[in-house]
Amino acid sequence: xxxxxxxxxxxxxxxxxxxxxxxxxxxxxxxxxxxxxxxxxxxxxxxxxxxxxxxxxxxxxxxxxxxxxxxxxxxxxxxxxxxxxxxxxxxxxxxxxxxxxxxxxxxxxxxxxxxxxxxxxxxxxxxxxxxxxxxxxxxxxxxxxxxxxxxxxxxxxxxxxxxxxxxxxxxxxxxxxxxxxxxxxxxxxxxxxxxxxxxxxxxxxxxxxxxxxxxxxxxxxxxxxxxxxxxxxxxxxxxxxxxxxxxxxxxxxxxxxxxxxxxxxxxxxxxxxxxxxxxxxxxxxxxxxxxxxxxxxxxxxxxxxxxxxxxxxxxxxxxxxxxxxxxxxxxxxxxxxxxxxxxxxxxxxxxxxxxxxxxxxxxxxxxxxxxxxxxxxxxxxxxxxxxxxxxxxxxxxxxxxxxxxxxxxxxxxxxxxxxxxxxxxxxxxxxxxxxxxxxxxxxxxxxxxxxxxxxxxxxxxxxxxxxxxxxxxxxxxxxxxxxxxxxxxxxxx
Amino acid sequence: xxxxxxxxxxxxxxxxxxxxxxxxxxxxxxxxxxxxxxxxxxxxxxxxxxxxxxxxxxxxxxxxxxxxxxxxxxxxxxxxxxxxxxxxxxxxxxxxxxxxxxxxxxxxxxxxxxxxxxxxxxxxxxxxxxxxxxxxxxxxxxxxxxxxxxxxxxxxxxxxxxxxxxxxxxxxxxxxxxxxxxxxxxxxxxxxxxxxxxxxxxxxxxxxxxxxxxxxxxxxxxxxxxxxxxxxxxxxxxxxxxxxxxxxxxxxxxxxxxxxxxxxxxxxxxxxxxxxxxxxxxxxxxxxxxxxxxxxxxxxxxxxxxxxxxxxxxxxxxxxxxxxxxxxxxxxxxxxxxxxxxxxxxxxxxxxxxxxxxxxxxxxxxxxxxxxxxxxxxxxxxxxxxxxxxxxxxxxxxxxxxxxxxxxxxxxxxxxxxxxxxxxxxxxxxxxxxxxxxxxxxxxxxxxxxxxxxxxxxxxxxxxxxxxxxxxxxxxxxxxxxxxxxxxxxxxxxxxxxxxxxxxxxxxxxxxxxxxxxxxxxxxxxxxxxxxxxxxxxxxxxxxxxxxxxxxxxxxxxxxxxxxxxxxxxxxxxxxxxxxxxxxxxxxxxxxxxxxxxxxxxxxxxxxxxxxxxxxxxxxxxxxxxxxxxxxxxxxxxx
Lengths: 493, 639
Description:
The complex is a heterodimer. Chain A is 56% helix and 11% strand. Chain A is an alpha/beta fold. In chain A, the strands form two sheets. Chain A has a nine-stranded mixed β-sheet, with helices on both faces. In chain A, a hairpin with a 5-residue loop joins β3 and β4 (98-99). The longest helix of chain B has 76 residues, at 515-590. Helix content of chain B is 63%, strand content 8%. Chain B has a nine-stranded mixed β-sheet with strand order 4-3-5-2-6-1-7-8-9, sandwiched between helices. Classes of the chains: A alpha/beta, B alpha/beta. At the A-B interface, α6, α8, α13, α14 and α18 of A face α7, α8, α9, α14 and α17 of B.
């Protein structure tokens, strides 16, 4: 669904808008909105307190930069951007931004320059990480925190009701169990002007997945079943694409595993079966000071903090089964943690759609900025905005997709399945969108498309079909026609 | 621990626990005194006093201590109960959760009963027997059999339960704002002790602390338990943080870390060290000393008070006889005094008695206050809702608006309920004190003035002279708020109000007509949407308010009736006593000298007997206190 034409149209529109508003107070706002189109996608990581947001961020960036720990850690909204050199900038509520010193002590220790936490709007960390080039990550203070103002800031970031508009283009929402606070927060992240509750730019993560199965070895299987169940839940379907289980601690450890840690684990795994079983009974058993163990208690405590009880069990079970290097172990941990699935999803649902998502945010921000204005200039700009919206087939597809997932369009189950694949799949290849195999001949592809177009035309013309489905059919037909064109173009070339 | 099928529910709790032994000893100690008192009352033909003694004896034999286990979703409540009792009864699973309250009490044979009620007639319950193995299929949220299911009652032949402990496993509280929270608070109001379960993975969240604050006003006896310490290495830090949070909110509850998994293993391997590590022995001690002992102490206090009162009343008539026989010259004055007492007793029974006036006025005031509180809360909700609607497009934010409205309404209803419950409690205490004072005066007037039998022991907060009030089976709000399902049904009505007829794709189509007229059309449409939205939310809040205020009125009426009936019964006994005193005095005066002497002598005999009984009662009371306060034997199961 990447469409250079859409972005061009939006760019052109914004250029016009900027020109029209030159000299007025809106000019700077519009210029800022235009600039956003050229920046990487902004992805916020949100969720309840201690859901594992910072840990997940570290796993995604590949380094332990965000601080994690037992008590509530992230107290300030922190943006992580790709840059050549490391730098931290503090943006207070009132006053100019300033660079602040920081130290690397395990994670990043940032000096807040005497500002109390309540008066800081955000921190921006510039960091030379390859992973951040594709997207800017925003680490948020937890929702339902005992410090209400912390949660309030996150709510404002996510909700498009604030003056800044939704500052994030997409959100990864971490939940531990379906909870009243979780559903609320997801609902808050809605883009009001462009589309109603949308599943397009939100992904759900069942975080700390190992704890759901109380750190048993089969915990992740259990978590996968539960995540699948949540994905099928109608209220969740409306609010995010899908839910995947992730054990963030394991993923963070996999990305940052040290040789010394590997050696300690190998030494423990080499002990007798009885000794290992005893070690793994509980955290107390694992960490207690007992003589005749090849690894001292302090090192074992560190291992627990890095991997968690589940991680330790997984590592020892793996190392006992075969000889492996540190690299093998790290790969295995990464696989077990579920982060590979998450990263694949992020790629297909966010990165491949980043143009559309950014265009959407830009238009939404502009619409919010001009909301309620009745002067001629604003009305003209808003009119232009509506035209761009109306003419952009990509937005139409997005809205239809969201409406389908919310259950507002009364189609049959088969039709629903077909449309979810057609509209939900990203990438330039049209075969996955038609659910055809890779080696399908061009004739088959063409015939499939034509058959479906005819089906939907009949549906649209049937007088008993509801208005909503008729509108949906028209959008679907247009999508198929676009596919047919690209199919014919491909065969010709 | 993931074994869902409840295997045979008999726990390997073969050793009778300390609490059970204590209780049977108490019954034995008091049996003697009670039977003698009954004889005394019988001699005076006081069947009403005999009935009172029987009730007291029954309560002593079965003091019921309700311990309600609450906590957020999936924190390990069911696993905790299983570990505490050493059974596999409550279904434990990674995914499904408890959906219905389960009341676990003593029964000679393992049994389970599903209690259902039709929502239309919530006071009629029908009971259906279940097999214990089927429990999981009924209790969990995946069950298809949940319709109209109020609760499940389970009976286990467990020694701990025999001592009078009743455990209630509750569905998770998903936050103070949900309708389920009011249900849970309802159960908390009827509990002697609340065990609040949180896990050791993180400190208390804001919703958990809010819940604790609300619960503390309804039940002062709360124990916080942190579960899953076997997989979280930092549980001591979490405990310290939790304690700090509690101190900040001026709550002084103990926070106890436990591990149900280690406890389970300790059962299986009979490992004492593992059991100690699990944290359960410490918790059990706390439950015994803090909860059971306190309850038993109250029971002893109440028993002593009841017996003393009965003896006093029996004494009254005898004293009158003796006084009349001793000094016939002063007969007129004696009779006058007795008649005054009789009048006072009649007054106490009448509608214009002080306690009745305070009760009736108090209930009327409280009803008005609670109603006003509810009204003003809903008025602000209405204003905020109107404002929100004015500032946005209803069709676009309707789902979010609805959930906000439900939450706000739920939250305010919970606060209103807390107000009702705590003030009703205060009123009950006030009335009881007033009555007790008047009763004492009358007893004094009838010539009985002996020092009270003292019961030393643990001082219990909030229960001055009215421990017996608590023990008259007085639970204020069990099942008062029966209308909580309404939140979800009304909520559904509210939710789909707009989305049914609206086409979310229609905006794009209007573009064909040109932008200016679209704006005008939108404006008109917007206005009408706003009006509809305001009407819809008003309808919802009116309905909620109507039902809640109906429920709270009913609750208060029930409180009033209960108090009135119980104190009126007492007043009638007193009236009978004073009347008997007058009759006896009269009879004595009217009889000749010989029979006067004879009846005086007989009366003196009885009086001596009663005095001896009082001494015996004091001794038994002391003995009982020592029994109750005895420390629990160390390292019970699984040694």
